[in-house]
Write a structure and sequence with these properties.
6 copies of one chain form a homohexamer. Chain A has helices at about 20-35, 50-60, 65-70, 80-85, 90-100, 110-115, 120-135, 230-249; strands at about 10-15, 40-45, 75, 105-110, 140-145, 150, 155, 165-175, 180-190, 200-205, 205-215, 215-220, 225. Chain A is an alpha/beta fold and about 250 residues long. In chain A, the strands form 2 sheets. Chain A has a 9-stranded mixed sheet with strand order 3-2-4-5-1-8-9-10-11, with helices on both faces. Chain A has a two-stranded antiparallel sheet with strand order 12-13. Strand 7 of chain A pairs antiparallel with strand 6 of chain B, so a sheet runs across the interface.
Chain lengths: ~250, ~250, ~250, ~250, ~250, ~250
Amino acid sequence: MLHGGFLEGDAVMVAGAAGSGKTTLALQHLVNGATKYEQNGVYVTFEQLPDQIYRDAEGFGWDLRRLEQEGKFQIICTSPDLMVNKNGAEELLGDTIRELRPKRMVVDSLSHLQMFVPEGDVRKEAYRLVMFLKAKEISSMLLWENPQIIGSSYSISDVGLSFMVDTIVTLRAVEIESSMRRALGILKMRGSDHDKHLREYEITSHGIRVDQPFTQYEGLMSGNPRRVASEKFVDMFRSVSEKKKNAVG
Amino acid sequence: MLHGGFLEGDAVMVAGAAGSGKTTLALQHLVNGATKYEQNGVYVTFEQLPDQIYRDAEGFGWDLRRLEQEGKFQIICTSPDLMVNKNGAEELLGDTIRELRPKRMVVDSLSHLQMFVPEGDVRKEAYRLVMFLKAKEISSMLLWENPQIIGSSYSISDVGLSFMVDTIVTLRAVEIESSMRRALGILKMRGSDHDKHLREYEITSHGIRVDQPFTQYEGLMSGNPRRVASEKFVDMFRSVSEKKKNAVG
Amino acid sequence: MLHGGFLEGDAVMVAGAAGSGKTTLALQHLVNGATKYEQNGVYVTFEQLPDQIYRDAEGFGWDLRRLEQEGKFQIICTSPDLMVNKNGAEELLGDTIRELRPKRMVVDSLSHLQMFVPEGDVRKEAYRLVMFLKAKEISSMLLWENPQIIGSSYSISDVGLSFMVDTIVTLRAVEIESSMRRALGILKMRGSDHDKHLREYEITSHGIRVDQPFTQYEGLMSGNPRRVASEKFVDMFRSVSEKKKNAVG
Amino acid sequence: MLHGGFLEGDAVMVAGAAGSGKTTLALQHLVNGATKYEQNGVYVTFEQLPDQIYRDAEGFGWDLRRLEQEGKFQIICTSPDLMVNKNGAEELLGDTIRELRPKRMVVDSLSHLQMFVPEGDVRKEAYRLVMFLKAKEISSMLLWENPQIIGSSYSISDVGLSFMVDTIVTLRAVEIESSMRRALGILKMRGSDHDKHLREYEITSHGIRVDQPFTQYEGLMSGNPRRVASEKFVDMFRSVSEKKKNAVG
Amino acid sequence: MLHGGFLEGDAVMVAGAAGSGKTTLALQHLVNGATKYEQNGVYVTFEQLPDQIYRDAEGFGWDLRRLEQEGKFQIICTSPDLMVNKNGAEELLGDTIRELRPKRMVVDSLSHLQMFVPEGDVRKEAYRLVMFLKAKEISSMLLWENPQIIGSSYSISDVGLSFMVDTIVTLRAVEIESSMRRALGILKMRGSDHDKHLREYEITSHGIRVDQPFTQYEGLMSGNPRRVASEKFVDMFRSVSEKKKNAVG
Amino acid sequence: MLHGGFLEGDAVMVAGAAGSGKTTLALQHLVNGATKYEQNGVYVTFEQLPDQIYRDAEGFGWDLRRLEQEGKFQIICTSPDLMVNKNGAEELLGDTIRELRPKRMVVDSLSHLQMFVPEGDVRKEAYRLVMFLKAKEISSMLLWENPQIIGSSYSISDVGLSFMVDTIVTLRAVEIESSMRRALGILKMRGSDHDKHLREYEITSHGIRVDQPFTQYEGLMSGNPRRVASEKFVDMFRSVSEKKKNAVG
């Protein structure tokens, strides 16, 4: 579903609630780039300590330090303060970009950026960052944390960030059979049409694994889907009436 | 459904969430005008870099640069700042209008305009722009981004922009059979009545393709429709009872 | 449902979302008054250019200019600024009222008035206007734009305007059989009781046509009604069991 | 359901949306008091012109002017400004109370009072008024306008007025069989328990007529009730199976 | 369900909408304490006049004046102003506590307190009061008025008062069979687990009577429950098929 | 489900409404650590008096004072004021950490911290605290109180605290068979995937007991689940038709 390569300079927003695996998806994207597609990657975080990220990655079998030593990967752990001025992106990322020549960059996260930027400027600052990366032909993956876990009304962002990205991937918690499962959908992909299925995904010991599309559910995006009961009933009914026919006949 | 020509000076609002294909629809409208109806077009964007627009269009097989060279099309990439003063529209668009004599203009987007205009002035500024274009007998297509992807309550805009347009087209994400599909509906068309169907549309490699109306669903506008189960059940039931009758008889 | 004549001095609020045909209903009310009931009419608009109104009316076969020449109709296109002071209504409307002696007046719209009046004064200003017209024994039709298209919670106005009108007509979009249809209901009629049906209406080439009441739907006012499935099922079931009885017998 | 007499000094809140017949109910309460229970009444209005009230009452066959001449009834039409100060109620109502010795008073409405009182003071002012009337042993009926017509969440007031009244009557619009009907319920009655049924009521040419309780509906308070379908289905099913039994037997 | 004695120093919050019987429950708690458990009680009210409370109690057969004369009960009718300062509780309640040595105290109500306390201080002031009473080993019953009557989303308080109480009792209006009935539930009881049933209760002429738990309903807490229809249907179906079997056999 | 040991330095958020047993779960976590895993524990509370905590624990058979005397446990009862400055955590917790060498710490609660911290700083302060504990290799359990008891939309926090924790446990009230029962789910566990079941839990006299996963319910997270009726119906239907077959045969 999410194939290895995005177009150069494309910006992808990954929106999900706490625990949806945004960080895992982002690391996997960079590790795959570095190890399978010869695309170096940079992970910019406003949120986590680098140690945490190394440790998380290890849990999935990803050796970030080795990638770092091989010059294929770098973590930039910074405060959003430093990024929020006209030349902030250049000052903060310029050297790394010149040295590593990355093709992939993760920004973790726009929601954190939003906390440090005066209301109304988030969009401007985020836009400047995206444009800076586009100009460098670096594809960016921008993480966005939805505060809402489940709910019948779903919005990506109330600060209007979605126009600036080429692709929007949503990660949703869905309650199915009294368990909290996970659905991944693509809400936007600039240009051609895309896979419309809402697919189950799991966070395995090797990273995110995207599974089969869901079937027979309505309302997955609300997090509170209902089994399409009639289908089941119809099946059951048909089989019962078959037996009846036989019994009568 | 959306036939080639709007009335001269008509203003059409196209409202949709991120990923609904508003930009594609808008470009298609201008390309069709320029190539099929001898109506030159202008694309005013507050949001995207021109390069992005050319690249997007190419993906659909639309050669905007050629149209530009033929004097049939132009992109104006500007900041909303410039437009927001009494003569802003004239200063910004006047020359282009005199040279290109466009009959179609796209404004991408009113939602972006809203970010730069003090609260309470959006409507006034947008109205002035629409009236300016009406006076020039240019039909305008105004894009509006709904932050909400799905939700049982649907509003076009909370700044009261809808009165000023002649037509409102809504583009909605709808979850059907565990997939994110798309519905297009016309909510307003000044004057005579219009097609009331909610139709499925797809973003193909040739642009937006409007398909058949949906049937057998309730609640499409909420994005979370339910199959009208009884219908199916009734069909099934009838067929079962037919068999039964035969079996008995 | 909405018979030709209102009581003298009555105030009617017509509330509906964008595209619900409020303007059409209002023009029709004035045209009918002027041509069938010998009641002259005035259309006060804060929103549209007169040209647009003439053109819209022509689309329905209504020749407003002729009515104007016959002294039966007038459009007053003004800014709400002018109306919002103690003698504003008198200054703005006084001459026209003395000359035309209208019995019907449309105000398009209270929602627009609201944009220009400091919060908290809307009600006062609107009340003064309604009382001014009542004192002149002119029945008024006040248009109100609901921002919400569909939604399970429905309010007329959050500025408490409804107490001041004698009648409230609501125009609602309703999604039925995957189409956007229209329902008209009377929520208030001062004094005696009134038609309680929610009726379908259409905007035809001759104006608004109010059709039969809806039947077999629940939740019309939410815009997202459900077919009362059991009824259908019951019918079907009965007919099936009839056949069965016959088959067995 | 609402018997003729309230306890002396009781305060009753009548809460309903526009068009629910609050004013009619209030007038009827006063007219009944004056003509059937020898309880004089005063109608305090912040909202309507007296003429409108006389006219409305006439429509129901109530001759308020005669009651006025007989010293049994009085309308006080005032601005809330006058009432909002420490001795406002005394100054405004004192003379009338001494002359007419009313046992019933209607205040139309607390919602209007709210418009003129600084936020946070409404409760205090309303409380002072209620206490003033209680001290005079006058039962009061306080009208409250809910902005919401229908909606799954129902609150009486967000300014905490309900604690101060002894009885709360709610008037709700309910959509039943595609018509807008009306339900009356008692939400509070200080002291003993009360009729819990939600009853249909109608506004007839003789005033409010409270009818039978609703049956077989769920969700009346939301305004969007659902027929308890299973009941019907069960009935139908039973009758069908009876026939079948006969047919087989 | 609510047995006679709470632990010494326990704080109980009773949350309910207007008309839910909070005051009745509170008076009953004090009267029971004074007459059955030798626990004197104090009723602190910010809301009602003492006369009203005596009268209400009389309606249930409770003679508060006699209890007062016997030194078992006292009403303190005060303004929240007096309580809101560091030693307010001591100054206001100290003498009474020393004289009456109460073991039970009712505070009617925290919602009223909230009106007089600057936003953000409610929690602090309420906490100070609760701690003051805990230190005196007086169990407190704190009344809280929910503005919402019914609604699918239910919160106790948005000012975070619930952490400070040991027990939370909720009183909810529930619409069942087209009547407004009442449900009582315990949402919190510090320490051991508690009765989880939602029970019907009634306000009788002798006070609150807690009845049997509800059964066969879903969604009671929303106030808009649905009968678990399938159960009924299943019963009916079974009985029908029994008859059929007999008929056939 | 929640096994004895968390990873060193892990931060766990426990989110639940009033009465969900957050404090019990937290105490149990510390008691288990001290008695079964040789991990000393500290309970930091902004909310309760230590006496209350000792008493609560006793109710579950936990002798906190003995643990304290054995140097395995400590309560720190403080005001959030003291913690909210750059070195607050060090000053407040430093000595205790050096003496007790705790591996587990409970913070009761982040919601309380939020009340004393200027809006916008909560996240920063909470983050600093979590990082301080991580640096000391102390696993932290952070309690968060959801104001909402039930509701179809569920969010953990609107101040974006969830990114900073490794694990999020949610405790939800669920209305099942007209009782208020309890569900525990894990919404996030950094690194590998986790138990996705929503499990029933009870507060017994020995502490929290996590029971079997729920089955046959949809919508548990909303607090207002629905039995998956069709299942039951299908079972019943099948069994009926079996009997029928036998009867006929």
